[in-house]
Structure formats: C-alpha cells, structure tokens
Amino acid sequence: MARSKIAPEDIDRELASLGELSLDDLKSRYLDLTGSLPPKYMRRGLIELATGHALQTAVLGGLDRETRKKLDALVAVIVLKDAPQPNPTPRKTKLKPGTRLIRQWHGRIYEVTVTRGGFDWDGKRFGSLTEIAKAITGTKWNGWVFFGIKKAPSTPPSLSSLDSPAKEVPAADVRTSAVLDSAHG
Question: What's this model's pTM, rounded to 2 decimal places?
Fold first, then answer.
C-alpha cells in the first residue's frame, strides 16, 4: 500500500466525500487503499470508517515501527496464536424433565413442565423459558429470571412487588407447589 497522492490539507474534504459515494464505489475505494475488499457482511457505516482510517494512514502515515512492535507484543500476551478458544461455561442450573415451574403473573397462575427437549406450557411445546415468558407477558424477559431460577441483576421495585417468582417443584408435588406459591404472593 503506497502513500496517497492526496495532500494532507485536503484530507478533511476527502473524508467528507466518502459518505457521498455509492456502496460499490466505497468498496472500490477501500480496495484501492488497503489492497483487499472489505468483509462481505460489513455494514456501510463501518466500511466508511475503515476506509477513512485507511485514507488517513495512506496520507499521514501509520504507526511507527516501534509502536507496531509494542502492540504486537501486547497482542501476543493477550491472545495466544493457534490457542483453542475458551468454551463458554455451561449453565450450572439443570432442570430435570418432569419438573414443574409454577409462576403467578398478574393474578393468574402459570404452570410449565420441563421436558427432555424443552418446556410444555398451555398445551404447546417451547424451546426455551424465554419464549414462554414473552408469550405470558407480551414483552421480552429472560425466562430464567421470569421463573425465578436465576436472579436478575437489578429489578425495579415497582416490578418486584407485582408477582411472585416461580417455584421449582418435583412433578409429584403439584398441590404443594400451588400452596408454596400462594404463600409468597
């Protein structure tokens, strides 16, 4: 990548003109400056920023050798090359098939049964508690939080007083679960 023929005093005008280019022309400008096409699914706004950075680097120069070496050394410490990516930690709370979750919401009792492949509620099968929570409330909820299995990071006081969290109860003890649930709400 060679230095651009644009004068440093004209860089502001050149940067402003990037927003006026068609997407194809913008990608072509990025290719001219970097020697490669932008990633396939990169959005226009990010392509403009990346092209602007490449333009400034071409006109004004990039990082000096010493700074690049320091950054490379820092990256090597943080990210080991060819190291396997860490696996996300598995959820510690496992719900056994047959477990029933009882939840009171706006004065109505909702009962969800845990199955091997997901959850049953209201005669339908769901893949997640979040889907059920959204069907019940009409808004986005973390299903584990809605059913009281996991604590929310912070709950506004106005919401916490409305309803009681679900209780995890073995399938054989449904009557007791309703009693337990009503005792807390």
Answer: 0.39
